[in-house]
Amino acid sequence: xxxxxxxxxxEIINNYANKKNTIDENSSILNVGIDSxxxxxxxxxxxxxxxxxxxxxxxxxxxxTDIYIKDLIKEINYELEKENKNE
Length: 87
Fold this sequence. Notes:
Layout: H1 2-16, H2 36-50, H3 56-59, H4 69-86
Helix pairs in contact: 1-2, 1-4
């Protein structure tokens, strides 16, 4: 499941990235060319795709420039695990 989340997340990020260089989980959101408005749109898209709510405040705790794709993947997996426990 986690690999599926990772690949789907990177696929969605590719739709928003202005820089089509190699994008992997160690890329930062800023380095792939996603600005703050694009980030919000990305989060909404990811929430819709996975049927979860992403805690944006948690992601922004270190500032926008320090958000990495691995942080998004970790947050999505956390929220999915939370959902599964509540079912």
